[in-house]
């Protein structure tokens, strides 16, 4: 059952009441906008007894700040699996699936297909659509949404903003918990050159690459890798890249230090090196 009012440029009010796995779901959207998106108002659906149990659980384990609510800054399978896992854990720990309030983010595209993570979340937040830099990868939007919905923590999932060290730093500045590694770890491992040097310092086997010859003592990379060592592992010109590939051996992969994923990798002949290196 659902009722929806007319939408104008400033506000949206929509309410849906439905049975999801035996529980009531109510979503109310108020006129707090991010561009073309809107944020639903806060509705507590947990009993005082449940809240008290979460507090006791936290303090018994030496925690200082109980997590009662989480913003899920992701969609699709990642969000669905997280919601189901938290619900299972909450039921086993507190005797109720609603031990933790779970707030989903929803783009117009997600809502158009009635995405599962929206349907099973306790609440949802409407955010701008389009590419993920407008929504799930937008650090500023995630932080603002977390503040508006008054959540205690943010879970980034995988992909999108999950590997952006700016997100944990920005959330920490607002007193919001980031459910993931600290920014320093993310920065160190997100940088392909830095992470490879750290692996070599720890004597972890690595594939042959332009920095295979660089030796670095473990104590030198506890905080940051010295610039002179970092630069020694890089290639800056086409000539250096060609020479490095000849040492590494073909097939070789050209990759930017902060290049992520592998969908964009294409097989090309060595003669294209000069042209392709300029795009890295």
TrEMBL record:
Gene Ontology molecular function: acetyl-CoA carboxylase activity; ATP binding
Cofactor(s) required for function per UniProt: biotin
InterPro entries given in the database record: ACCA, ATP_grasp_subdomain_1, BC-like_N, Biotin_carboxylation_dom, CPAse_ATP-bd, PreATP-grasp_dom_sf
Protein name: Acetyl-CoA carboxylase 1-like
PANTHER family linked: ACETYL-COA CARBOXYLASE, ACETYL-COA CARBOXYLASE, ISOFORM A
Domain Biotin carboxylation: 66-280
Keyword 4Fe-4S found: no
SUPFAM superfamilies in alphabetical order: Glutathione synthetase ATP-binding domain-like (SSF56059), PreATP-grasp domain (SSF52440)
Phylogenetic lineage: Eukaryota, Viridiplantae, Streptophyta, Embryophyta, Tracheophyta
Alphabetical keyword list: ATP-binding, Biotin, Ligase, Nucleotide-binding
């Amino acid at each position: 059952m659902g009722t929806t009012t007319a939408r104008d440029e400033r506000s949206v009010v929509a309410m849906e009441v439905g049975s999801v796995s035996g529980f009531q779901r109510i979503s109310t959207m108020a006129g707090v906008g991010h561009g073309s998106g809107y944020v639903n108002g806060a509705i507590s659906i947990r009993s005082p007894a449940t809240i008290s149990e979460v507090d006791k659980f936290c303090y018994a384990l030496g925690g200082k700040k109980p997590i009662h609510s989480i913003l899920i800054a992701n969609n699709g399978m990642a969000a669905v699996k997280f919601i189901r896992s938290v619900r299972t854990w909450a039921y086993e720990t507190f005797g109720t699936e609603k031990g933790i309030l779970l707030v989903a983010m929803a783009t117009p595209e997600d809502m158009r297909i009635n995405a599962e993570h929206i349907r099973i979340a306790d609440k949802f937040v409407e955010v701008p659509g389009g590419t993920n830099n407008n929504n799930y990868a937008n650090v500023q939007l995630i932080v603002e949404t977390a503040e508006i919905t008054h959540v205690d923590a943010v879970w980034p999932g995988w992909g999108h903003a999950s590997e952006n060290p700016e997100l944990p730093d920005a959330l920490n500045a607002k007193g919001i918990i980031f459910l993931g590694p600290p920014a320093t770890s993310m920065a160190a491992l997100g940088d392909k050159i830095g992470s490879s040097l750290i692996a070599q310092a720890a004597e972890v086997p690595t594939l042959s690459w332009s920095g295979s010859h660089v030796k670095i003592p473990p104590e030198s990379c506890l905080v940051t890798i010295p610039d002179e060592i970092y630069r020694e592992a890089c290639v800056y010109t086409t000539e250096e890249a060609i020479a490095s590939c000849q040492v590494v051996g073909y097939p070789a992969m050209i990759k930017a230090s902060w290049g992520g994923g592998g969908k964009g990798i294409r097989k090309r002949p060595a003669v294209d090196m000069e042209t392709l290196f300029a795009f890295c």
